């Protein structure tokens, strides 16, 4: 034994993630990270590297937790893209309503602060948004609508998701957030119906 204090790296990463999630990258100090994790600056640097490297690991951690939930929801209703999108928004709204985590979304929070991020972190945020779009687009592929319509709907769903996160940070009530999600799902359903070939819509 070296005598060096041992700590749970995964737990420290989760604690750091919540600080970035609550405060945003720009307003998160090393002192705040140290207070949340119980680690001194030396231990933080030794375990995670600098602030930017730690932030990147927190983004990955966030994406691995909630991205998996999104993927599971979107894949739960094969052949029914509207129900898949409804399930996706259900997961999003449940996270927003969870009192054990900060409001909003770490990715949305970070996207809004892109100008303060290092280039590699900004690119990472864009990449995570693109992964989300690709997951939604895959769920929509069961529709008979044309490719352009499906591509546009995937962007629309991700945009609504990010808007829900921003609205929740502003204190918008859960009932209003769920109303936004319902209208978004209705828009998806209506757009898919209108975009379907005529022979299919006639049954």
Automatic annotation (TrEMBL):
Quote the DNA-binding region ranges, renumbered to this chain.
29-48
Residue span, HTH tetR-type domain:
6-66
Q: Which Pfam families match?
A: TetR_N
Q: Give the keywords, sorted.
A: DNA-binding, Transcription, Transcription regulation
Asked if the record carries the keyword Transcription, the reply is yes
Instruction: State the protein's name.
Output: TetR/AcrR family transcriptional regulator
């Amino acid at each position: 034994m070296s005598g060096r204090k041992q700590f749970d790296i995964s737990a420290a990463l989760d604690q750091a993630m919540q600080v970035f999630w609550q405060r945003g990258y720009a307003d998160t100090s090393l002192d705040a990270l140290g207070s949340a994790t119980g680690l001194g600056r030396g231990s933080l640097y030794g375990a995670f590297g600098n602030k930017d490297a730690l932030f990147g690991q927190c983004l990955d951690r966030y994406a691995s937790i909630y991205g998996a939930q999104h993927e599971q929801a979107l894949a739960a209703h094969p052949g029914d893209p509207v129900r898949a999108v409804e399930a996706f928004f259900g997961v999003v709204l449940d996270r927003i309503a969870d009192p054990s985590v900060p409001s909003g979304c770490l990715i949305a929070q970070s996207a809004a602060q892109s100008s303060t991020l290092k280039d590699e972190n900004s690119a990472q945020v864009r990449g995570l948004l693109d992964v989300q779009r690709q997951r939604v687009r895959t769920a929509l592929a069961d529709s008979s609508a044309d490719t352009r319509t499906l591509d546009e709907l995937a962007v629309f769903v991700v945009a609504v998701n990010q808007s829900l996160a921003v609205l929740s940070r502003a204190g918008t009530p859960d009932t209003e957030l769920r109303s936004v999600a319902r209208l978004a799902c209705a828009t998806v359903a209506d757009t898919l119906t209108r975009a379907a070939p005529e022979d299919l819509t006639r049954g």
